[in-house]
Design goal:
The chain has 632 residues and is an alpha/beta fold. It contains 15 helices and 35 strands. The structure holds alpha-D-glucopyranose (GLC).
Length: 632
């Protein structure tokens, strides 16, 4: 099991997927009537996946419909749990995999792998939690982000220059709202060229990064997978000179359009290419950056030499008007047909991209993670849009272009459970929603969930309503809900670091903590957070109360921006009232947690030793370190 290195696949012989699927392989497992199916990481739908079909084929499609079969990552691990079934299955294949989870009611799981290149791992343990633990031990511990990455981050596609970034930081400061980092979306670059800075917009980026760090704010730039075809640009020139880019069937460099226009794609499957691309982050670490987000690495392709050209305006309009995109012939959010013309060289063999598609983003994460480890003498922050099982060793992920709806808020909670089962314990969604217009109520309710997710970032799309916490009039309610995060960081950080060291989950479904509790097995809107906390956020528009299930006696904790009120509650169902400016959570019986003694404006001001205990009168084993020195 120790040789389990799912994204080090150089030893595997690749064979071209047979278009008639004669090389595809099917596998079945029988289900009992009461079995539920957990897992599959980033997929739409409920916590119990039974009754649905999912397709692992990394996809850039921002219309996250409830029945959408594929998302940005492929996490092919699922668990079957029932009265007598307790097994987990990991389908390790770089190609497209279809999971039919009893959708045609035959009492079977059917998995179709469109490649002969597949390894199946079966784990049998006493319950779903133990199965997950064994799987997490197999795939190894998560990367360790710095402490500041557990602070709150503000982002928006549309912050263009120094002035915009300063305005955001000032907005938070003036409203007395905490903030740890601001993300720089594609507009900081020179014409969307990776590893460049637009000098007009950011005349002296190094001093700006330094100045912000002195104010306690980190800047986190985006890096896209495609490298603009731009003779004279260092990344492009080196990529061409040393043959680092993927080629097409005619032996020419493969070319397709993303944000910068025509781009080439680094062949991340080759070690020398990963070393080179990872080393290119030096252009950014030299400017003082210590955190990055990798995007468009499914890879997303707007159009190419073999598909219908779309203008930038077309792309943006399709994004905002989904029905337009769906109706238009030939144009869609991603030009999948291009993958057939896109080749890698793996172990000296030419491999069609289609056959290894699901590993591309993960290999980019590996390139960045390994590069940053070399370049920085401290921990780095990295989160990626595309991923595959195993990539958690290099960075975290965010769940892509969601939208400002209560439905996507609920989906965020479900994603946290299934992503944790697949090792991605440093993850989170665009708080408030990326597409669409967020309301004050939605953002407050979303923050109340994100208060507990390791990655906590408010991000939104260009042309949507402004979504910063100070953008909705009087920020008092936001101050209350957001300040909870900074009180909780000592617990969140400690539980995260313990979970990673022990290959454990940081967030999990209720049923994992209460195996055998039939009621807990059906609860899809509550989560356990670390060893001691249960959350039950309000995720319905207009609701001021909700039903909560307590599998055992618990301490109900109510935070109103100033202090914590605690009350012991008996096991069973209860209705809890939660006004918009308050957050309620629960501490499990005979558990305690630590919270910061005072509220702070960023993690730089936080003293992890200055804590008070909440919950039951028992000791809490707090993990402590300096939050920045790399850990093994
Ligand atoms: C993609 C990303 C989104 C980003 C946008 C512009 O849609 O998912 O987060 O803001 O590209 O870079």
């Amino acid at each position: 099991m120790n040789s389990f290195a799912v994204i080090n696949r150089e030893d595997i012989t690749y064979e071209r997927t047979d278009p008639d699927k004669t090389q595809s392989r099917g596998f079945t497992w029988d289900l009992d009537e009461d079995d539920v199916i957990y897992g599959l990481g980033e997929t739409m739908g409920g916590m119990d996946k039974r009754g649905r079909t999912f397709v692992s084929y990394n996809t850039d499609d921002s219309h996250h419909r409830p029945d959408m079969p594929s998302m940005y990552g492929s996490h092919n691990f699922f668990i079957v749990e029932g009265k007598s079934s307790h097994f987990g299955i990991f389908v390790d294949s770089p190609a497209r995999v279809t999971f039919s989870f009893d959708d045609i009611k035959k009492g079977q799981v059917y998995v179709l792998v469109e490649s002969p290149d597949v390894a199946i791992y079966t784990i049998v343990e006493d319950n779903a939690y133990q199965i997950t633990r064994t799987f997490l031990k197999m795939i190894g511990p998560s990367f360790a982000p710095p402490l500041w990455a557990f602070g709150f981050g503000q982002s928006r596609w549309g912050y263009k220059n120094k002035r915009d970034i300063n305005r955001v930081i000032r907005g938070y400061k003036n409203a007395n709202l905490p903030l740890d980092y601001v993300c720089l979306d594609i507009d900081y670059m020179d014409r969307y060229i990776d590893f460049t800075v637009n000098k007009k917009r950011f005349p002296d980026m190094a001093s700006f990064v330094e100045e912000k760090k002195n104010e306690g704010i980190h800047l986190v730039p985006i890096v896209d997978a495609g490298v603009k075809v731009e003779p004279g640009d260092q990344t492009y020139d080196e990529g061409v000179r040393y043959n680092y880019f993927c080629r097409n069937e005619k032996g020419k460099f493969f070319k397709a359009a993303v944000w910068p226009g025509m781009t080439h794609f680094p062949d991340f499957f080759r070690e020398n290419v990963r070393r080179w691309f990872g080393g290119r982050y030096k252009a950014l670490t030299d400017l003082g950056f210590e955190g990055f987000w990798n995007d468009m690495n499914e890879p997303a392709i707007f159009y190419g030499e073999n598909s219908k050209q779309q203008s930038f305006l077309d792309m943006v309009l399709d994004f905002f008007l989904p029905s337009r995109g769906e109706k238009k012939e030939g144009a869609k959010s991603n030009a999948y047909e291009e993958y057939e013309h896109f080749y890698h060289v793996i172990g000296g063999i030419e491999v069609c991209h289609h056959d290894v598609h699901n590993l591309y983003g993960a290999q980019m994460m590996k390139a960045s993670g390994e590069g940053l480890k070399q370049l920085l003498d401290k921990r780095y922050l990295l989160f990626s849009r595309s991923s595959y099982i195993g990539a958690h060793r290099y960075g975290g992920i965010w769940t892509g272009d969601n939208s400002s709806t209560f439905f996507m808020l609920r989906q965020n909670l479900i994603h946290m459970a299934s992503l944790n089962m697949c090792g991605f314990i440093y993850s989170g969604a665009d708080t408030g929603g990326f597409g669409g217009n967020c309301t004050k109520e939605l953002l407050l309710r979303w923050l109340a969930l994100s208060d507990f997710t390791p990655l906590m970032r408010d991000h939104s799309a260009i042309a949507t309503r402004k979504q910063e916490c100070y953008a909705f009039g009087d920020p008092e309610d936001f101050r209350k809900v957001l300040s909870l995060r900074y009180r909780l960081i000592p617990y969140i950080y400690s539980e995260f670091m313990k979970a990673r060291a022990n290959c454990d989950m940081y967030m999990m479904p209720l049923s994992f903590g209460y195996p055998g509790d039939e009621k807990a097995r059906r609860i899809e809107d509550q989560l356990l957070v670390g060893e001691g906390v249960m959350i039950a956020p309000i995720m319905k528009e207009g609701a001021l109360s909700r039903k909560v299930y307590l599998p055992e006696e618990m301490m109900e904790v109510r935070y109103n921006g100033n202090g914590f009120r605690q009350e012991v509650c008996p096991a069973g169902e209860r209705v809890v009232k939660v006004p918009l400016h308050e957050v309620v959570f629960y501490i499990r019986k005979n558990k305690a947690i630590v919270v910061s003694n005072k509220g702070v404006q960023n993690t730089g001001q936080l003293n992890l030793y200055d804590v008070v205990k909440l919950g039951y009168d028992v000791p809490y084993d707090q993990y402590l370190d300096d939050g920045i020195t790399p850990v093994a």
